[in-house]
Design brief:
mainly alpha, 2 domains, three-stranded mixed sheet, two-stranded antiparallel sheet, 5 strands
Length: 393
């Protein structure tokens, strides 16, 4: 049954570039799938439906594992249906794949966040111009990026090791890339190793760099992958954990815990996080306005719903791409190039529904962890689905 799950994911991955985010499972399974003719989506949807029924009836599966596998296969079934041409609304697609329904943030809440940001920024004049002008002064020079990333990674790795532990022999390699729709990406290679790519299409800001390293490496994606490789695959032989598939609930939990990474490794306090970043970038000659960065860190949380609103405008309301770019410029206070990059992500066939993993994953994981390191450890070591993280559980 687990082999069928791996085959289903790998077969769908031949239709959708990037759907198989990571695979380090049995080589003979992947070799067989790669060698066979591409399986048409309608048959894959039927395969997923039969697999769901068999998982439901499997007497040898413990309840927690059954619950997890059912959630995963429902996401794969939805992807197969979409590929086969079934008419599924954007919100239904998100809910079936990721386990939560996308929500709109009222614009009066966004306006309130604008007012808070306006108060936090020095100077006068139009808010967007002041914010983007300030951000432009916080750029990490390309020639300094590797040093800044290395300094942050070393510190965050030590904190992660001290609080939760890391498997012996784990390792991350960082590289700079271009021409991608995302800002950073963790390619987990198995064998406790990751390759983290940082996209330099747009200037990398000192304001975000610590969050990015924590998200992709320590205690985020790399930490989760390595802890689960040891704890779930090597010790418990849960081979479903050898594949990581876009379009499934595991992504929402993974992105939520990774976005929470800097808060749990350093501090939930914005001033403390800003001081942490300052201690790594300023000695390397990178400009960083600590006081303003902390104030903006607190105020900018109110703009988290802009991406979800933009996605719903595109995919539910049928808005024109140029209008959505303008919407992100206005409400997200983003310069046009960054707004265009956001829309590039939202219109990518693989990633269009994925923004919900950030928009809903972070608040869900933050509320569940509630500052407790033991709860965060559960997220990086156990098979968890979004419905198991609601406050009533």
């Amino acid at each position: 049954m687990i082999e069928r799950y791996l085959e289903l994911g790998l077969r769908l991955g031949r239709h959708v570039d990037g759907m198989v985010d990571a695979y380090f499972g049995p080589g003979h399974i992947k070799a067989r799938v790669d060698a066979e003719p591409v399986v048409e989506p309608r048959r894959l949807a039927s395969d997923a439906w039969r697999l769901l029924a068999d998982i439901e009836q499997a007497a040898d599966l413990e309840p927690a594992r059954r619950h997890y596998l059912l959630a995963q296969v429902r996401g794969l079934h939805t992807t197969a249906q979409k590929l086969a041409g079934d008419d599924i609304s954007y919100s239904d697609e998100v809910e079936r794949c990721y386990g939560v329904r996308p929500r709109r943030t009222p614009e009066d809440e966004l306006a309130a966040a604008h007012a808070e940001l306006d108060a936090a920024l020095p100077g006068s004049g139009a808010l967007a111009e002041r914010l983007n002008g300030w951000r432009e002064q916080q750029v990490v020079p390309p020639e300094t990026l590797h040093a800044v990333i290395g300094s942050l990674a070393d510190d965050l790795r030590e904190r992660t090791q001290r609080t939760w532990g890391l498997p012996e022999g784990e390792h991350v390699d960082f590289e700079l890339v271009t021409n991608e729709p995302w800002s950073g990406f963790n390619y987990f290679l198995g064998g406790l190793r990751s390759r983290v790519a940082i996209n330099t299409d747009l200037p990398v800001l000192s304001l975000n760099i610590a969050h990015l390293v924590a998200h992709e490496a320590y205690p985020g994606h790399h930490t989760e992958h390595t802890r689960k490789e040891v704890g779930l695959v090597r010790r418990r032989d849960l081979l479903e954990e050898t594949i990581f598939l876009v379009g499934t609930p595991q992504c929402l939990v993974a992105e939520g815990l990774a976005d929470l990474g800097l808060e749990v490794a350093v501090s939930a306090d914005a001033d403390a996080r800003a001081s942490f970043t300052e201690s790594h970038v300023k000695p390397l000659g990178v400009r960083y306005d600590t006081e303003v960065a902390a104030a903006l860190g607190r105020a900018s949380k109110g703009l988290a719903g802009v991406r979800a609103n933009a996605a719903l405008l595109l995919h539910e309301d049928g808005a024109d791409v140029s209008d959505v770019v303008s919407y992100i410029e206005r409400w997200g206070l983003a310069p046009r190039k960054r707004a265009e990059k956001s829309v590039e992500f939202l219109t990518d066939p693989t990633w269009r529904a994925y923004t919900t993993c950030y928009d809903e994953g972070l608040p869900l994981c933050r509320a569940y962890v509630a500052g407790d390191p033991a709860r965060f450890e559960r997220l990086i070591t156990e098979q968890v689905t979004p419905d198991q993280l609601t406050p009533t559980r």
